[in-house]
Structure of Glucosidase II subunit alpha:
Amino acid sequence: MLRLAVLFVVLGHVSLVDRGNFKTCNDSGFCKRNRNTKPGESPYNVQLPTVKSTSPSRVEAEVINTKNGVVLKLELIALEEGVLRMRLNEATSAVARFEPKEALLDSIQESDLKLEGKDDSSFTVTFGKHRAVVRATPLVVELYSNGQLVMVANARGLLRFEHYRPRDAPQDAGGAGGDAHNEDSAEYDDYVPVMRGHDSDQPDEMLDQAPEAEITHSHNKQEQSGGHADKAADEHTDENAKKHGNDQADKGTAEQSVEPTDNKGDEEAEKEDKPQEDADMEGAWEETFKGHKDSKKHGPMSVGMDFTFEGFDHVYGLPEHADSFALRSTVGSSDPVRMYNLDVFEYEVDNVMALYGSIPLMLAHSESRTVGLLWLNAAETWVDIEPSSKQGVLSSVVDFVKRSPPPNHRETHWFSENGLIDTFFLMGPGPKDVMRQYRSLTGTTPLPPLFSVAYHQSRWNYNDQDDVRSVDAGFDEHNLPYDALWLDIEHTDGKKYFTWDPFKFSQPEQMIRNLTAKGRRMITIIDPHIKRESGYHIHSEATEHGYYVKNKDGGDFEGWCWPG
């Protein structure tokens, strides 16, 4: 009976969570498009004649999508503290993609990046004790620290960059090869918005990232010394960079939680109804969640890439989620980890549901080394994590010769709804080094005030000033220390922030002094949703100065929350 009672308690707890408040990958067009991309031969190739040093700290090159001719600009930038920044963006476009520049410090310093060598298949750059080998066909970036391979970008060929296109133009996937729905993709490949050598207007507007749909509260091989002289390692890497993509193809999408539609009749009917879209571009221009329509003014512009951590069993990070400390595999068992800030106070533990905060930082740690990856993108982002594997980029050949067991590695796949690919490789080699490198990008955490780390008393809601006085006196009566008392939204006049209810909280200054006289603080809630009411001075000022988030038509975005 006790076991049965425990089961009822657990089931009762789980039933409190309304899963309908959480968007899944199956509800998101761009998530499905990226997750359905199969490992294999990537269509993105580096144009080696375009490789050049543009400054002592920067190397640039053009990358072409061989499916449609769209040209991307690849930038490698060396930063102080042992960080390499990799940016990939459209070479030219009528729309500028959003960049969350405010997330970075203004004081970031660049350091020397040397273009050490270039041949007919790759080029190499060095920064401090580290180097990056960039393979051309397809684009693969290998990161070495003290001669040891630690990270690889696009090893599985999952790079996908949905280029800007007008709505009345034919729609192609704009992504990686081997897409789940590409039987008819040839008819779309004729549309080429940006080709190398073609002129294009400069960006005339910024991409609006504000979502409208969701309103809810291996490897371990030591290289020989000398720049690019290790021919054997390079040959092994060439062979295995291809193998790393091809040997994953047999996995298919059967392991994944989202399967492609196979009904040809439905696909043909959909094409007749929506001539602008093919089946692979579902949700490209608009989609609906819980009755809210999300219109995508600039169409499909998602970006995605896979990153492999070589020689590591475990990866960590991607806060905030109520999941295990060491991140678990998501492929075949759950949705990808979702990065999207939500005010949903009911959630499940051991789950990758999105919560209050999102920090796209991942660390890989082993007994001998620690590295990190920062994916700088403010849009909704999903991250798939593969199980730990023994088959690495280089080790399958090298370790067969050496008769030594290959080290593990972790494969990850990152994709965002829009923006550009802007990635920071934190080369370590130790945990303190990675934290210092991350700190050099985003700054340090401010030291919190002493009262903020003590006990805070809060509930929804205190009825009036007498209720506050009674609760405060109760702590004194029972000799319980506390440092702050919180008031929820009901203290306001009609749920208008920065106001007081004239009847229930008619003497706020006296109420606050009663607390501060004992060394205690009062904190009032202020959320980022303002009541739309004529005569409310906060609303009037925000409207007059254009402070509100804008909708797709440029007007003030209106949503629903506590004020109505």
Summary: The mean pLDDT is 80. The CA atoms of residues 183 and 280 lie 10 Å apart. The radius of gyration is 27 Å. The first strand starts at residue 44 and ends at 55.
